[in-house]
Amino acid sequence: MSLGLAASTVANPALAIAFNDYKLNADIELTQAVISANILPQPGKELIAVGVNDSYQRYLMVYGYQGNKLVELDRMLLTNDLLRYDVYQAENDPQAHPSSKNKQQKLFFTTADSLYQYVPRSDAFSSQLDTSSQLEKVADISSITVTDNADYIARGRFAYDINRDGYGDVFLSDFTQSHLLLAQEDGSLQKQSVPLKPIVEVTRSGAEYSRPEVFSADMNFDARPDLVRVGEGMLEVYHQLDDGSFDSVANFVAVSQPISGINWWNKRDAYGRQLDQSDLLYRKVEQIKDINGDGITDLVVRYTKSSGVFDRSNDYEVYLGSKQLVGETQQASINFGREAATVIRADGTLTGLRFSDLDNDKIDEVVVSGFDIGVSQIIGALLSGSIDQDVYVFKMDANSKFPKKANESEQVELNFSLTSGQSGEPIVALADINGDGFKELLLSDSDDTLKIFVGQSGSQPFSRKSHQLNFTLPTEGSMLSVSDVNGDGRDDLLVQYGRQDDKALQRQIHLFIADD
After folding, report:
1. Which of 39, 306, 426, 431 could lock 280 by a disulfide, CB 3.0 to 4.6 Å apart?
2. Short-list 239, 260, 233, CA closest to 251
3. Closest Cα partner for 444 from 422, 464, 416, 466?
4. Who contacts 50 (Cβ-Cβ below 8 Å, separation ≥6)?
5. Which InterPro entries does the UniProt entry name for this protein (predicted)?
6. CB atoms within 10 A of CB 283
7. Lowest mean per-residue pLDDT among 173-177, 274-278, 446-450, 494-498
8. What is the C-alpha to C-alpha distance for residues 85 and 430, in angstroms, rounded to an integer?
9. Half-sphere CA count of 341, side-chain side, radius 13 A
């Protein structure tokens, strides 16, 4: 059995923010990131974990926050033919339908040919365990994953609200097309196929297939999000219909710039090699969404310029969408200008771009990281085992322009080990911890200190002085996630540990809830 413990309040006593740390020691090794989602009919969200026991049997574990502690609500043995799992997390979706925030969502699993959903026992929300929970087959599927005995099970990222009706849908791909399983109000799934082919990378021994990256955005001004895939120099669009399904025939939107939907390092030249970095200009679409809050879809492009391995930079260009009427019927269509309306630019190579409405004004701010990869920086990193990484925050002005210089910048440290060949990952997260509508900036400061910069209005998005939360930080920053687990309208911090952390920590889950 797992043990739920409520720890003492943790914080710097000189500062205002304090947390209660609720710790759980799992009786399995947690091999995948813990997910917070509403999958049971009880207040708040559940914690979904997947791992293996000492005999390497795979288990699904469901934990909950009850009576001021973390407790085990359910467990289920998973068979080896299960390959992927996923659940729609509305709170992590900036474009989520307002009704989806409080809806109970479905936890899905896939095999090579079937889609299953988790069906909890009727008393799973109590603390009494039995074995009546099950996986129920809900659809036959066709997949690019044809094995029936995978080495591990992982989160698949295939469940999200495709048509923005508040219900989590399923998007899967096979070798020739993609399949949508659209959730209905009665709980059933409506299946539809669209001619979206997988991404194919030809190799000497055959080919590698992966699911196409698809965006959801309104491209024809009917207030319904459409399916959008980025092609070479154009956008492939499948318009949403009145019943929530999608057109089976693509419409194409031309883009003036030579854009792509594939990262440059996955591209191959005529010799089958990676692109030459000594003279590289490349534009890859990162986001298709309304950035400036005018109700029109915009295009965000990563523009990479390289004259060598150690001389590479990339900016993020924003092409604001506009409405145009085409044809005899004067049908509304999206148009993107040839020149970027505004550019996000900073020193070094930029990465980790995220758009988030920090101050609840319906206009997205930008948080992005940057680091130098010159020869001197690499030598210094080899000697110290770490490299400095800057975190920049850009705030759009009233003219839909980002400033030339970031509104705010902070620094974190990226660590790596030459012995193990593994690198860490700093914590860079956003969370509305105090529930005031302004998001806080969370940054790792050392192995045991998390800095919290309080969100505020104005051109300076965060306070200059930080609060501190002291605990053992995970080596991989992605092991810290943000979710309102207890449903009090404030974000909580969910922390676990991975293979690079001490063995004694690898079965621990921490839930930090801000003190009243």
Report:
1. 306
2. 239
3. 466
4. 30, 31, 32, 58, 59, 60, 61, 78, 85, 153, 155
5. FG-GAP, Integrin_alpha_N
6. 19
7. 274-278
8. 25
9. 19
